[in-house]
């Protein structure tokens, strides 16, 4: 019964929070039970995003912005990424992929929040709690300030050293090509085989379809896709996929 | 640097813990930094299981048994399940599925840790920290003591009421048929169309392949599969899949 009361209080807290623009206004009245309930609520939201049960959200729920912000700047987020990359390394070291040495063994990476972090942009924009302004994000991207995700960089170098051909398939638009390449090189990435960005025609379709189409192209060219590392489920879905995919956590935004 | 020290201590703690049979022996010496590092480590393990990056584990890592046990008996686990089911309800209420009224609209459920909870068994068996003894688990299953997952039961009734045909596709073996049906009925489930269990021949193949084969059978019979609710990625993988799938959390065990 005590727990039910806790949930009731928590739920009331959420209702109130939805009706008020800034959750922080309520903070002085938040009981620890409400805070516990809110943490439960936001953690459930986050895990269900990662489970791909919650799809296509435009913004992080207002009441979870603080929670998501904390996670994205935490040692937990770094540890979660590290573990995902460790599993990719394990996949390689267990002899996942018998490379033929014909230059047709491919590995695919996403760019944003996979190779480089765009969390610094979101930090200034309410951690996903406000609707994305593409113009403003692209302006930021043109400044080439996205830092490398250290673990992914190390893995990228490992993959390249093993003789895979690396393809970067991103939902970034074609007009960002030179900034994107500049940013990647600046933070230590080099030696990819192809940087695939969205052409105007691709902007008419869902990112998931555009990425699957790009993979179809690679397979037609004779490439064998051994793995994909990305932060969005839309980077893996559709056919052809890869022998293994590795999903990095990302509760900031959803790309369909 | 403080954080690095924390990780170093945590890592040392993990090394020690791996070498010692019972982590609890070490508890008096665990500093709060080590505890924090261990929590990070186990949370990363858990999220990477849910992201399907960590596959095919036989046991929960020894040092995370306490962490997993806490989660599986927490209000967080309940809230996570509730949210997953809420998303399934949302999918229905948004007009996901235009039922034709020809009795060919299908919905699939897993059984264990989807319709009913087998956490009570794992509670007595080190929360996934010891290798599964199938004989002992099946003995427990024959006692029909698995309680319903309340939210899934409500959703099951909702689905049935809307006119879907319900198929239960489980990795339980055929010899458990009557116990399984008894247990399900006892806790409130009724009105499913078919209970599909693993025949002897099916035991030779991976569960993922057996479940895909069962779905192939349904599609051949003319069924349209609108949704699957399950706790294992192997319940969704392979073709045909469903229009939408809903993954319930489960860090206790992995079914390939």
Care to describe what's here?
The structure is a homodimer of 256-residue chains. By secondary structure, chain A is of the alpha/beta class. Chain A has 2 domains: 53 residues; 180 residues, 3-Layer(aba) Sandwich (Rossmann fold). Helices cover 44% and strands 12% of the residues of chain A. Chain A contains 9 helices and 5 strands, in the order ααααβαααβαβαββ. Chain A has a 5-stranded parallel beta sheet with strand order 3-2-1-4-5, sandwiched between helices. In chain A, helix 1 packs across helix 2. The longest helix of chain A has 19 residues. Chain A is globular, with a radius of gyration of 20 Å. Chain A starts with a helix and ends in a 9-residue tail after the last strand. The relative contact order of chain A is 0.15. The N terminus of chain A is likely disordered. Chains A and B meet through helix 1, helix 2 and helix 4 of A and helix 2, helix 4 and strand 5 of B.
């Amino acid at each position: 019964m005590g727990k039910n009361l806790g949930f009731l209080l928590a739920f009331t807290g959420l209702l109130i929070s939805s009706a008020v623009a800034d959750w922080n206004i309520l903070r002085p009245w938040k009981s620890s039970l409400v805070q516990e309930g809110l943490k439960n609520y936001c953690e459930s939201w986050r895990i269900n995003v990662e489970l791909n049960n919650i799809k296509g959200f435009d913004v992080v729920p207002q009441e979870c912005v603080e929670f998501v912000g904390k996670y994205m700047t935490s040692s937990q987020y770094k540890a979660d990424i590290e573990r995902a990359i460790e599993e990719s390394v394990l996949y390689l070291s267990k002899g996942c992929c018998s490379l033929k040495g014909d230059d047709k063994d491919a590995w695919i990476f996403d760019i944003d929040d996979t190779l480089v972090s765009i969390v610094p942009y979101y930090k200034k924009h309410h951690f996903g709690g406000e609707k994305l302004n593409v113009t403003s994000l692209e302006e930021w991207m043109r400044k080439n300030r996205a830092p490398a995700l250290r673990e992914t960089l190390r893995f990228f170098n490992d993959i390249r050293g093993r003789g895979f051909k690396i393809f970067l398939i991103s939902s970034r638009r074609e007009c960002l090509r030179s900034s994107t390449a500049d940013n990647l090189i600046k933070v230590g990435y080099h030696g990819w085989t192809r940087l695939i960005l969205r052409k105007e025609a691709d902007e008419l379709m869902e990112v998931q379809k555009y990425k699957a189409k790009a993979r179809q192209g690679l397979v037609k060219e004779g490439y064998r896709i051994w793995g994909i590392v990305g932060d969005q489920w839309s980077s893996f879905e559709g056919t052809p996929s890869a022998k293994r995919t590795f999903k990095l956590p990302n509760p900031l935004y959803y790309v369909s």
